[in-house]
Specification:
Length: about 725
């Protein structure tokens, strides 16, 4: 393939459905004079040999949909359930194929191959995602190819591939967005490059009001990326990033009575806050040893501080109304209003996370057994440390974390005023080894592979329940995770695939804490099966269908009060469908009318043993569907209208239908949300005008009951302008 067409050709190869927009993409490439770049992700170059289901969203596809965040971008991906309990993708909750989406802890989420979770092993909670403006492509992998990555391989993985450094002079873009709910977004990108390398800076800021009242947020993301071509066969790619969120988004939902009065209220929203600061660095060395061998060494370091303050611990504790639980003596705690909230305290939960790792990986071709083959062999060493602390106080001064730190356990200061509640350290050392080989035999691609995880965790408690204690325990586990996949390409532009692999989610020390005690939930192991078909055989038509089955040996579920237990065997099974029809391509017309849709039926998502045998898993909707109809005009105008549907869900393992006063149990009713997007870029122009709308009918719907009732986002519309240079 000639390098001049790598960008467009890569789009088409990675996603057959993108053939719909090939002419438009070529026009954009010409008008922007896009320089030759190499777009690399977690999927192999020969996608027809991938022995499992995957889904790709490239830059053109994302521009057509104009999502607010990754949350909306993933709504059209079959098998993916995104719970929108927060605004603009903050605190994202993603579940794949019936798995609980809470904080995306069972889905491996990466940026350029590096995990984004707070602690990939010790606390794989997701509190941030890559801004859409920096994303070149989103890769979603659910099949046996997961064994090359980890540690989470039970459900699926998502990788955000960011924009490459320019290689042909000065390039960049500026963008501004404005929307209701006081939303504003500013983005700037600038870079310079030549045959020796280059450098690029991204700056992105978004702010606005959240779903609930007094839930304003402000997010800043900055990334500096550079590339140095050492020789014709070696290059270095470096990236440093800084992310900061300051918001008043409360982690506590509403009690049933509060929600009935005003589902968008947040009684303590003015005082509750969430803060997250992430600093990251990544250095990649690529050495093309020969035309058939490449050695890639990736090193990374991440430092995260997150802290939250809230004034309500238990929603709906007073006949369906929440109570302020840490107030000065003489102030009625049950009278929950903003005036009292200003006079009361609460609890701070600052947490620090650091992790680093290094991973050399060798990709090479060979002809073992007389068959053309492509092999991958690699090793990763990973360490992480986290410190979890908590302070509490019962008057207004306790709203300041610095006050609590300075005064807790000091002479003359009552413990009720400043109480140091918790100090816990968690250390992880993990070694991962993997090998995968794809044999090509005629129209068949056979891919066996294996991953080995060796994990050591140590949890040490220094403070619990406000008292100094010492309790330290170690947990050492090792697992062999095999996989086998098969792909057949005997029909033009068509792949029949099947596979099985062992899934694994390591034991999470962060969920094994109970006061001064340390319990040990066992690691989750699953066996994942797939059988599917993807095809672009017919002109202007592409589709994919996948049958899947996942059996857990001992799934972990969350109980009330935030406790986790092993709940025995479960089974998830279903079918995923996705397709696109472009009538412009079918009839050789410059006017492209198209249909795009996906549907997931998780017909089985049940506990097979234990007290909940026969019940459905939490937050596992049986039906999910997304449908869009769109039109592209050759003058550079396009418009799309779509609908997303999610069926009823259960919020607890007992499948309780009648809600309690706290609002934490009961069903989550089905809902359908309508959305749209439009873009206009005159031919030959570098300016793009766009708009996007979500929940156009302003439907009120329930999104979550995890910590009380949380409403989904009401109508949100924004308009924007972008200039590329």
């Amino acid at each position: 393939m000639k390098k001049k067409s790598v960008l467009v050709a890569t789009m088409l190869a990675l996603n057959p459905a993108m053939e719909v927009f090939s002419e438009e993409s070529a026009r954009l490439e010409k008008s922007l004079d896009i320089s030759p770049v190499e777009v690399r992700g977690i999927l192999p170059d020969r996608l027809e040999s991938v022995p499992g289901s995957y889904y790709l969203l490239d830059k053109k596809d994302l521009d057509l949909r104009r999502p607010f965040s990754v949350q909306e971008a993933l709504n059209n991906v079959p098998g993916v359930n995104v719970v929108g309990e927060n605004s603009f993708g903050l605190g994202l909750n993603i579940g794949i194929r019936g798995l609980n989406p809470r904080r995306t802890s069972r889905t491996l989420v990466m940026e350029d191959g590096v995990p984004l979770q707070l602690g990939p092993y010790g606390d794989p909670s997701l509190h941030l995602t890559t801004p859409m403006e920096r994303i070149q492509r989103i890769e979603v992998v659910k099949g046996s190819g997961q064994i090359l990555y980890g540690p989470q391989t039970v459900g699926g993985m998502i990788n955000f591939v960011t924009r490459p450094v320019p290689t042909n002079g000065f390039q960049g873009a500026v963008q501004a967005m404005l929307g209701n709910n006081d939303f504003t977004g500013l983005y700037a990108n600038a870079g310079y490059g030549n045959e020796r390398g280059g450098v690029m800076l991204d700056v992105n800021q978004k702010k606005g009001d959240g779903i609930r009242k007094n839930h304003d947020f402000d997010v800043l993301d900055m990334t500096l990326k550079g590339q140095l071509n050492l020789t014709d066969s070696q290059k270095l790619i470096a990236k440093v990033g800084y992310y900061k969120e300051e918001s008043h988004v409360s982690e506590t939902g509403l009690g049933a009575a509060e929600y009935a009065l005003d589902k968008y209220q947040a009684p303590t929203g003015n005082n509750d806050f969430f803060e997250l600061e992430r600093k990251s660095g990544q250095l990649t060395h690529i050495f093309d040893i020969s035309d058939t061998a490449r050695l890639t060494t990736n090193a990374y370091y991440v430092d995260v501080f997150r802290s939250s303050f809230r004034q309500i611990d238990t929603p709906g504790s007073n006949a369906g109304f929440s109570q302020l639980e840490r107030c000065p003596a003489g102030l009625p705690s049950g009278n929950n209003n903003l005036a009292n909230a200003d006079q009361c305290g609460g609890r701070h939960r600052p947490r620090d996370f650091q992790y680093w790792g290094i991973e050399p990986r060798l990709d090479f071709q060979h002809s073992l057994f007389g068959l053309q083959s492509e092999a991958v062999i690699g090793f990763r060493y990973h360490e992480e440390d986290q410190r979890r602390r908590q302070w509490r106080g019962n008057d207004a001064r306790a709203q300041s974390l610095s006050f609590l730190k300075a005064n807790a356990e000091q002479p003359g200061i009552a413990s009720a005023v400043a109480d140091f509640r918790e100090d816990i350290r968690i250390a992880v050392e993990a070694k991962s080894y993997y090998f995968q080989n794809t044999f090509y035999a005629g129209d068949f691609a056979i891919t066996p592979g294996v991953r080995y995880e060796d994990i050591k965790q140590r949890t040490t408690i220094f403070q619990a329940g406000g008292n100094a204690v010492f309790n330290s325990q170690s947990n050492h586990q090792s697992k062999v995770l095999p996989g086998l996949g098969l792909a057949w390409n005997g029909i033009t532009n068509t792949t029949v695939f099947g596979g099985v692999h062992k899934g694994f989610a390591p034991p999470r020390a962060s969920r094994d804490l109970d006061g001064a005690n340390i319990s040990q939930t066992r690691a989750e192991e699953s066996t994942n099966y797939e059988l599917g078909l993807r095809s672009a055989y017919f002109k202007g038509v592409s589709f994919e269908s996948t049958l899947f089955k996942t059996k857990f040996d001992d799934i972990v579920i969350e109980q009330p009060a935030g406790r986790f237990i092993n709940a025995g065997e479960t089974e998830q099974a279903g079918i995923e469908l996705a397709g696109k029809v472009d009538f412009g391509t079918i009839f050789d017309s410059a006017h492209h009318f198209y249909l795009l849709g996906s549907y997931t039926n998780v017909f089985t998502a049940d506990f097979e043993k234990g007290a909940d045998k026969g019940n459905r898993l939490q937050y596992a909707p049986k039906h999910m569907a997304s449908m869009s109809v769109g039109y592209l005009h050759p003058v550079g105008f396009d418009v799309r209208i779509g609908a997303d549907y999610v069926s009823e869900q259960f919020s607890d393992s007992a499948n309780t239908r009648v809600e309690n006063a706290a609002g934490t149990t009961g069903t989550i009713p089905a809902y359908t949300l309508f959305n749209m997007s439009a873009n206009y870029r005159p031919v030959g122009s570098r300016v793009t005008y766009f708009m996007s709308g979500y929940n156009l009918t302003d439907r009120e719907y329930l999104a979550s009951r995890v910590d009380g009732k949380v409403a989904g986002r009401p109508r949100q519309v924004f308009v924007g302008i972008r200039y590329d240079f």
